[in-house]
Amino acid sequence: MDTAISITLSELGWMLIGTALIIMIIYIIILIKNLIPTVKKMNSVLEDIESITDMASHSTKNVQSALNNLTESASVFSDSIKNNQNIIAALTSVINAITSLRNIFNKIFK
Fold it and tell me: How many domains does the chain have?
């Protein structure tokens, strides 16, 4: 009994393609298995980044508000000084006059 198995080149080609597909499916399954924890970790990191960005945005808004208030206060203070410049000059003159009088009295009564 002489039994011979003959395989044509096309059958051999289909077997090689099938074997390559099975190996590729196994690699894809392993790749997906390894990617799932990575994607979960990436989602956690992205959530942390989102919360940090929200905190930074809130802090930036608070700083901007404080700067606006400071600018407004400085503007009001500057305007009041400009308006009261004559009063300040008058007060300075009065203080200088009082100091001069005190110096004169000190020279006279010493």
Answer: 1
